[in-house]
Design goal:
alpha/beta; five-stranded mixed β-sheet; 34% helix; Biopolymer transporter ExbD; transport; protein transport; cell inner membrane
Length: 141
């Protein structure tokens, strides 16, 4: 679409033209993209996916519960652990068991990450393969 405005009595001719070439280029590219992607989306194998409900967290007696409070103190099943060496030695004993227990870390919301990282590195150093973080579930609306 173009428009020319011309006046015979004015020396400076005013030409106002709308250039639609970039608009047409963009529309053609979008049309090609839609023509390519729509058949891929429509032609899929009809599969009914399984429905899964999340089970609430259940503590098994073989799991190790390690809690870190906001001050950075470490607790093993509610018993205070004084230093990292004690924690590692106790974890190494547990790591030799078959099947190997999981370590569930319960960190306070305002705990500095350095304290949590200390527990994670101790668990790795002891050779335990499974670490989980315990959180509070969100209330359903």
């Amino acid at each position: 679409m173009g428009m020319n405005i011309r006046s015979d009595d004015d020396e400076n001719d005013l030409i106002a033209t709308i250039n639609t070439t970039p608009l047409v280029d963009i529309m053609l590219v979008l049309l090609i993209i839609f023509l390519i992607t729509v058949p891929v989306v429509i032609h899929t194998v009809p599969v009914k996916l399984p429905e899964e409900k999340t089970a609430p967290y259940v503590t098994q007696p073989i799991n190790i519960q390690i809690a870190v409070n906001k001050a950075g103190d470490i607790f093993w099943n509610e018993k205070y652990i004084a230093d990292k060496a004690t924690l590692i030695s106790r974890l190494q004993v547990e790591a030799k068991k078959t099947p190997q227990p999981e370590v569930h870390i319960r960190g306070d919301q305002v705990t500095k990450f350095a304290a949590i990282d200390e527990v994670i590195s101790a668990v790795k150093h002891a050779g335990i393969g499974k670490i989980a973080f315990v959180t509070t579930p969100v209330a359903a609306p």
